[in-house]
Amino acid sequence: MIKLFRYLEKFKWLIFFTLLFMFVQAISELYLPTLMSEIVNNGMMKGDTVFIWKYGGYMLLVAGASSISSIIGAFLSSRTAVGFGTLLRDKVFTKVEGFSLNEFDKIGTASLITRTTNDITQIQTVLVMMMRFMIYAPIMCIGGIIMAYSKDKHLTLVLAFVLPLFVVTIALLAAKVVPLFKALQKKLDKVNQILRENLIGIRVIRAFNRVETERKRFYEANKDLTDTAIKVNKILAMMQPIMILLMNLTNITIIWVAAKRIDANKLQIGDMMAFIQYAMQILFSIIMVSIMFVMVPRAQASAERINEVLEIEPEIKDPKEPKTPKISKGHIEFRNVTFRYPGAESPALENISFEAKPGEVTAIIGGTGSGKSTILNLIMRFYDVESGSILIDGVDIRDMSQKELRSKIGYVPQTVVLFSGTIKDNIRYGKEDATDEEIMRAAEIAQATEFILNMKDGFDSLVSQGGTNLSGGQKQRLSIARALVKKPQIYMFDDSFSALDFKTDAKLRSELKKETSNSTVLIVAQRVATIMDADKIIVLDEGKIVGMGKHEELLRTCEVYREIVSSQLSEEEIA
Amino acid sequence: MSKGQRPFGGPRGHMGPAMGRPVEKAKDFKGTVKRLVEYMRPQRYKFLAVFILAILSTVFNIVGPKILGKATTKIGEGILARYLRIIQIQIAIKRNMPRQVIENLKRQPVPSIDFEYIGKILIILISLYLISAILSFIMSYIMSTVAQETVFKMRSEVKDKLDRLPLKYFDSRTHGEILSRVTNDMDNIATTLQQSLTQLITSVVTIIGILGMMISISPVMTLIALFTLPSSGMLTAMIAKKSQKYFAEQQKIIGQLNGHVEEMFTGHKIVKAFGREEDSIKTFKEINERLYNVGWKAQFMSGFIMPALNFVNNVGYVLVCVVGGIFVAKRKIEIGDVQAFIQYMRQFTQPIIQTANIANIIQSTVASAERVFEVLDEVEEVKDKEDAVKIKNPKGEVKFEHVKFGYKDDELLMEDINIHVKPGQMVAIVGPTGAGKTTLVNLLMRFYDVKGGRITIDGVDIRDMRREDLRRMFGMVLQDTWLFNGTIRDNIAYGKEGATEEEIIKAAKAAHADHFIRTLPHGYDTVINEEASNISQGQKQLLTIARAFLADPPILILDEATSNVDTRTEALIQKAMANLMKGRTSFVIAHRLSTIKDADLILVMNRGTIIEQGTHKELLAKGGFYAELYNSQFSN
Hints:
The complex is a heterodimer. Chain A is α/β, with parallel strands linked by helices. Chain A has helices at about 10-45, 50-95, 100-105, 110-115, 120-135, 135-150, 155-200, 200-205, 210-265, 270-310, 370-380, 400-405, 425-430, 435-445, 450-455, 470-485, 500-515, 530, 550-555, 560-570, 570-575; strands spanning about 330-340, 350-355, 360-365, 385-390, 395, 410, 420, 460-465, 490-495, 520-525, 535-540, 545-550. Chain A folds into four domains: about 1-150 and about 290-315, ABC transporter type 1, transmembrane domain (ABC transporter transmembrane region fold, Up-down Bundle); about 165-265; about 325-410 and about 490-505 and about 515-570, P-loop containing nucleotide triphosphate hydrolases (Rossmann fold); about 415-485, P-loop containing nucleotide triphosphate hydrolases (Rossmann fold). Helix content of chain A is about 65%, strand content about 10%. In chain B, strand 9 (about 555-560), helix 18 and strand 10 (about 585-590) form a beta-alpha-beta unit. In chain B, helix 2 (about 45-95) packs antiparallel against helix 11, helix 7 (about 185-215) runs antiparallel to helix 8 (about 220-265) and helix 15 (about 500-510) packs across helix 17 (about 535-550). At the A-B interface, helix 1, helix 2, helix 4, helix 5 and helix 7 of A face helix 2, helix 4, helix 6, helix 7 and helix 8 of B.
């Protein structure tokens, strides 16, 4: 948490004035009972109405000062806390946008989202609380004690007895309740989890006639949750009366002792009344501080998560003096590339060398986990190679700027990602300044025109977040169109035809062939039929190249390839 | 020292003042409240007890300050008496009274404070406060059980209800939507029952009680105190209205911001691939800036309410001090009364704010309750027939006779479908994605009922069987393999209740899963974690096959799809599936040509219905959709 506060630097004046006004507010609040005691001692007891009016006026002024400084304080602290949250959010988001996939894998997408949104909101909320109470409460507490002491030393002894009792009671109850709250949260999560599992697996549960078993499981979790909740609430039921009772008893004790002091002519009655109010102010400020103690640790966890993100240095950086290839054609070469995912024991790719030439189709096939997609990820420099090098048009990709590198590539990923916006926006994502004609042409080649025009608003139809209003095949075609509109030198298709039915698949590929005749095309596929006629097929098995060549050639020479083919095609198709 | 202030909010409390936040409203407020009350009827005696206890404990608490005031008054009287004596003596000296009179006055005992009286009062007070605390404790104690048990019952009922709802209900809603009704809404109801309801009672009693006490002290001062009320009420309303606007706006922008973050992070690869990081940051900064502009205002507005109220309060406080002071000076009221009055005033605003807040809380609770009741009111599945038929030794003959079906009432997908599958036959289902293969499963397992015609197994209409018996006849090996949190053993045993260890291992062996299970660190006791990420997709499929082996059903539904499975496991899965299908009627969602060619019957599906059926040769000869589909892939 404290680490994060280095970003408060920018707000130091705002914070200074916030604290200043909080201070003024606290002092004013502390001054009010003293003024009242003056009224009692010198006004009421002596019947001096003029004095009462005069001091009444003072009290109003002080109360006004307290309120005004409190409002100014609220104004400043809102700007500080929200500004801080805004700054932090900017920093985290910008940082994350610079991450390579490596860092994304490390933390996880869902977690990164929470860290950028909820966690920062949490910090912001706590900062507001801190600025409002962290300063105010201790001043009220200490100031209250000083004021009380100035009224009467002996009476303060009562506080010396009551305050520790109060603190200990709170601490004891908190020690009991806080862990229970944590348990409660866990049990609530458990109920949620069982429910979620039940919803996801509803078909399986019903198919296997497991409704009754699941019911029991839920019943137990529910019962467990209820029991804990009752336990917590019973302790809380004790807490409140105890607090109130302690306060009331404090009052009574003060009056008893004060009466003795008054009788001994050591104390005035107004001072006693002021003293009671100070005691209450002190007790309340202790409660406030204890609330802080509960709030801050919760924010602490958020702060740690945010810090972790901010401290990560992205591994992949642009070179200081980026090179640009002299001739730009899109020629790709792998030279002895070995790569392993962070923390993995065995490499995902080992000694990979091949060339993909402009005007040719290079296909990569192999089982899951054989490293097909990894090759594409390395070309895009989402990860850096462990050894060896990847060259594009003769330049090592680590010597180019990432922007330059990626501008050459039109990439169609395995899992389609679309953004909310219109169909047109989504295709245009490939090329910011694409004209309508270019967009329509890309859609045409991607076999998307028909379904787009069938939608209500054609190219202006809205795509919902994640593209949930489109079918898998439709999404895939849009994703292809997005890459096409870019007119890149290199096309990379990562299993991009899997959701298409055979007919569309065939048509799309024949259209694509015409469009990409001058480009380097890399296709990763599971279906043999998709890549049978490629200029070069690379067969991967467990990260190694086990075969390279044309379809017929591989059928003769490569065992793994034959295995894959025979599992998919029947005898006559192989021939 | 206000009642109902909770030192620890905790995760379940209504945190902080909910002031100024927009409130959700129920559609049918009255009806829902009525139902909710009906719901708590069995607990009515406890509620009555809580109600009485709340009133008593509050009353005891309210009398406190007035009695305490008496002690102060007594102290004041003591001092006054002393003043009077001194003044008497001074006057006597001034007037040159005879020495003897002065000596006499001086010799009389100095009047002191009546400690016996004060002591008595304080003891009464201590007992009052103690009783009040105990009563309040008993009240919350009872309430915690009542509230939680009511919600426990409700939650169980909703879960049971969900078990009786047709799949249609789940397919037409997101999981989040259903989940939030069972958890968030329930939680809301629990907290309200637990806290807000008693708070409402105590607040109302406190307001009335304090008002009474104040009037008994001084009607004029009460008028002054009441004068501050409308102003604080109006002030709160004014600020709340403004801040509600900002909060709503803030909520909207937060939604946009979260949406952007979620989209950009899940699409990170694409953003990078297309070099759009800077655009993304620009958009983010723009939204974030807007969030700042609204956010600090919302924050400020909600921080504004307290000081503003405080000021109005303080004005009242000062006025009461002044007026009370003058009254005391004129001997119209006692000094202890002023002290008591000040205490009452301090206690007065809190319950009023609380009641105003509770109005909001109750509204949102009723909205929650309404959503829960909505679930409870959903139309349930048609009940199993009383005289349900049970097939003793099912052979696995499946027939569709003139079946009509559609998910929507006015939109039929299937019209007059007839299929006849003989026992032990293999049926291949082919067609583009989204062609309606799930629909077939839905109908066979009776997740959905047909809209016309009938489906029979061994000649018995599936609607004449108990669902449980029907489903027991099916084994499912689908692509979305559903494994639950638990050991591998439990997951396999899911297929058959009371399965023995030998049976489980035998099933695992038959499914070619035994080997990989034994290579896992804990073998059959390996716990599959929530996302089942500790075993691969293919291994999961093997486990579901083992599960089906154990269940030993006469009819199978299989999905051949093996995406994300390495070639070796894929071969195992194929072998295991072939084993499993032996001697059983099977419906295979086919992805391999070899399967299709060997099938006894091919069902070609498109747009939710079966458009062609027959063997591979028949269908090719027909030259229809199937032929085209087949040729488009393999003609080149």
